[in-house]
Amino acid sequence: MLKQVSLGRYYPGTSVLHRLDPRVKIILSFLYMVIIFLAQSLIPMLLVALTTVVLILLSRVPLRHIMNSLKPILFILIFAFVINLLTIQGDQLLKIGPVIISEQGLYTAIRMALRLAFLIISTTLFLTLTTTPILVSDAIEQLLKPLSRIGFPAHEMAMMMSIALRFVPTLLEETEKIMKAQSSRGADYDTGGLIAKARGLVSVLIPLFVSAFKRAEELAVAMEARCYRGGEGRTRLKIMRCERKDALFVVSMSSVFLTILLTQYLL
Questions:
Q1: CA–CA–CA angle 226, 231, 232 (5° rounding)
Q2: Proportion of the chain above pLDDT 90, given as a percent
Q3: Buried b (16+ CB within 10 A) or exposed e, 12-39
Q4: What is the pLDDT of residue 263?
Q5: What's the CA gap between 224 and 43, in Å, rounded?
Q6: What share of the chain is helix, strand, coil (3-state, %, to 5)?
Q7: Which of 4, 17, 69, 189 could form a disulfide with 130 if both were Cys (CB 3.0 to 4.6 A apart)?
Q8: Are 110 and 77 spatial neighbours (Cβ–Cβ below 8 Å)?
Q9: In the chain, domain spans
């Protein structure tokens, strides 16, 4: 099951989103996050949903890979839905014993769950499935480069984020291997209470931490062996340039964002 998590996994392709400048995708993803949180009423939420569907079609990424990105936050989605459903006061819609469900509570619960889902799907499409970790690192460094004039370590920050994102699927695969190995030795992670399950996870966490530190040490040795000394004086194989397709996509998405804001605050 852990192998199905799409966080940190790049899906190769030649779609419109794949060919966009990664700097454009990072900026648009942050703007889209803001738009998703500003959308409150029905029509803006429908426009956000329609925009997300169009982005999925443009990416040409199989739907199962996109839906896998929601698995790590499935518990948060359910928790947010239930909390809003039971705590928001309003016109009574349904009463089950002491539990009262209102129309406002149901609408707010659905809106919050969809908002979180759209947020994860959009960021996954822009920054993970259609962009390699190296391009994300280079784009972040380019965007943060003006801050280097005041001493901000832009290259080092981008490198750390890239390495962390790259090793997410590796650590997930390592976790699954450890759990299978411990299960073959008699470990049980499905039965017992919360305390028993927490104790069972200790047999996974300790080897996982040991493996993570070992991989970090090997990575440090490999970088030193290749004479890595930071970003100063480094050249790049691929030079980022914003082209006509990037400008057209920015204009299109800006028009969509503006339409959502107008429907939210003027209608």
A1: 105
A2: 20
A3: eeeebbbebbbbbbbbbbeebeebbeeb
A4: 92
A5: 54
A6: 75, 5, 25
A7: 17
A8: no
A9: 1-131+239-267, 155-234
**Which among 28-32, 80-84, 167-171 has the top mean pLDDT?**
28-32
Radius of gyration of the chain (CA): 22
Q: Which residues on neighbouring strands pair with residue 101, listed in sequence order?
A: 94
CA distance 141 to 157: 8
Report if pTM > 0.70.
Answer: yes
What the block records as the tokens of 122 is: 């959009």
| Residue listed under structure tokens 């996974």 | 204
* Amino acid at residue number 234: R
Q: Looking at the predicted structure, is the pLDDT value of residue 63 above 60?
A: yes
In whole angstroms, give the CA distance from residue 159 to residue 141: 8
- Residue-level pLDDT at 249: 93
Residue 177, token pair as written in the block = 């291997």
Residue 234 has pLDDT above 70, yes or no: no
